[in-house]
């Protein structure tokens, strides 16, 4: 048996229950991982609330790190006893043990702890596909990145600095602005007090930007579009404030023949080779010290509701992990 968080209905944090579950032997293409740390992400809230649909009852979470306990017959790149991590899996990582798809599991280098891995796999691989694949930054751009003091945002700030990119990050307080700048943001905008497009133009001498990365959703959609130069790209990769709906494509024409994409990690890391290549780039930046994993909060699995409440209320900074040891 394994302790795991499960929900039987969609709703608020109160639907999260810690229960005992059976973990079956891994399928041919799966790996059973005994978790030491599990990552918390906004997508977990989307599945809990029902914004993202999944047959009930189900677990939550897609990101964790631990030790391999069993492997399926078709798995060759990891073995029992290996230290591993993953940033994608069948939903249900909020657990002591979990069966993950082998193609999404990578070996952990000795210099990365379980907590670091659980805090950065989904977030770090997200930044990798955003910066190196969706819009491949070259090092001479100025960009806008929303929620710059969050778990994804702090990795993005550091990665941008490593690339020589000027990242303007939106934040909700002076304290979060300071944290984002400490991690490499070139400038910050407090969206509770400042007009985002106006402040972008002030920072750039009147210029707009080639790309905006937006994980907030409906609350920042219009402001993001107003920051993009003609034929620039809007990368909408999250819905923290709710989904963007009812989009009039004519707005893209009116604002300068803009492009919009709604990417996902699964589409950019669809094979073991692609996952490993992205992870290698991330791990290299960690090893060199150019990316430091910021864990702002630690919880027990039993406190999953409290952790999700804090994340939804924007009371967190950096990454949040569940400690399973």
From TrEMBL:
It comes from the Bacteria. PROSITE patterns: QOR_ZETA_CRYSTAL. Keywords: NADP, Oxidoreductase. GO terms for cellular component: cytosol. Signal peptide: none annotated. It holds the Pfam family ADH_N. Residues 11-322 form the Enoyl reductase (ER) domain. One of its GO terms (molecular function) is mRNA 3'-UTR AU-rich region binding. This is Quinone oxidoreductase. It comes from Verticiella sediminum.
